[in-house]
């Protein structure tokens, strides 16, 4: 599959390039979230996860969804059980319609899979990769986690990457972040989040290394910039894996970085092409032999 099918548009935000602070020094204190992230009401980041900008430590507000018990309009609100039952009913309708439009699809999938794309994305419910790419079941192999963070030692993502690259022999690996990301909003602040603290650590380290740049931007632009930096960091982690390096060298595997705009549904491709020198240096440092 040609990755050109992932139609992208240029970003509406101007890119700002600045020098990266010395990681070792860490002498510049972080501004507190109350100063660094004063987002106006109605902004995408604040509306997605306002609890990061208050006293609560919950991960996401689910867009301030009003519970059914709070409905005072007189209109019956769908309960969680109704939603589940509706989902099962819609599945039957979807399966029947898909089988009608593509009669060979399900019998073919029953015999195995041959996806050409490995998608490494965020668990956010607004970012369903197969739907937003306009593809079908069997087209995309997927791993998603909170804030699409690629931990070098994470067995889950590592196993998915190795299986997809070595056994399924995908042609494209995509690391995708998205706007209004709750995990990024959490990493921009300093609240204690329990088990999420060690998970978000690599993202907070990216924030710290680029602190001067992020603090020079308006809050919403800073959040989007951190999304982009996180994708680039994830790509570096992926391209340090021996199985990926070997596939790049032997059969031209490509690694891509994308940003999904949840407000428009459009993907933006990052400029991530490596120079020959960078590829050779990475091979020298990380390539392994059987």
TrEMBL record:
Coiled-coil region(s): none
Cofactors required: Zn(2+)
Protein EC: 4.2.1.1
Oxidoreductase in keyword set: no
Reaction(s) catalysed (UniProt annotation): hydrogencarbonate + H(+) = CO2 + H2O
Comment on bound cofactor: Binds 1 zinc ion per subunit.
GO biological process, one term: cellular response to oxidative stress
Pfam families associated with the record: Pro_CA
Protein name from the UniProt record: Carbonic anhydrase
Protein's organism: Penicillium chermesinum
Lineage, top ranks: Eukaryota, Fungi, Dikarya, Ascomycota, Pezizomycotina
């Amino acid at each position: 599959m040609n990755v050109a099918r992932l139609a992208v548009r240029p970003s509406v935000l101007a890119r700002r390039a600045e020098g990266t602070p010395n990681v070792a020094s860490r002498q510049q204190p972080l501004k507190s979230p109350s100063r660094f992230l004063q987002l106006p009401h109605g902004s995408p980041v604040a509306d997605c996860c306002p609890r990061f900008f208050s006293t609560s430590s919950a991960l996401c507000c689910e867009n301030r969804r009003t519970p059914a018990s709070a409905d005072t309009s007189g209109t019956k609100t769908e309960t969680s059980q109704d939603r589940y039952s509706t989902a099962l009913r819609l599945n039957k309708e979807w399966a029947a319609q898909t089988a009608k439009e593509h009669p060979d699809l399900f019998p073919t999938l029953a015999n195995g899979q041959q996806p050409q794309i490995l998608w490494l994305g965020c668990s956010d419910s607004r970012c369903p990769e197969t739907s937003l790419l306009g593809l079908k079941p069997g087209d995309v192999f997927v791993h998603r986690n909170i804030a699409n963070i690629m931990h070098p030692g994470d067995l889950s993502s590592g196993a998915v990457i190795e299986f997809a690259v070595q056994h399924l022999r995908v042609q494209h690996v995509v690391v995708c972040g998205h706007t209004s990301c709750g995990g990024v909003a959490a990493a921009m602040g300093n609240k204690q989040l329990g088990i999420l603290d060690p998970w978000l650590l690599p993202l907070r380290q990216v924030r710290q290394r680029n602190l001067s740049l992020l603090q020079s931007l308006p809050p919403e632009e800073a959040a989007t910039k951190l999304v982009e930096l996180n994708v680039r960091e994830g790509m570096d982690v992926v391209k340090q894996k021996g199985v990926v390096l070997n596939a790049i060298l032997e059969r031209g595997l490509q690694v891509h970085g994308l940003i999904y705009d949840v407000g428009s549904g459009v993907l933006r491709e990052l400029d991530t092409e490596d120079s020959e020198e960078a590829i050779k240096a990475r091979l020298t440092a990380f390539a392994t032999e059987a």
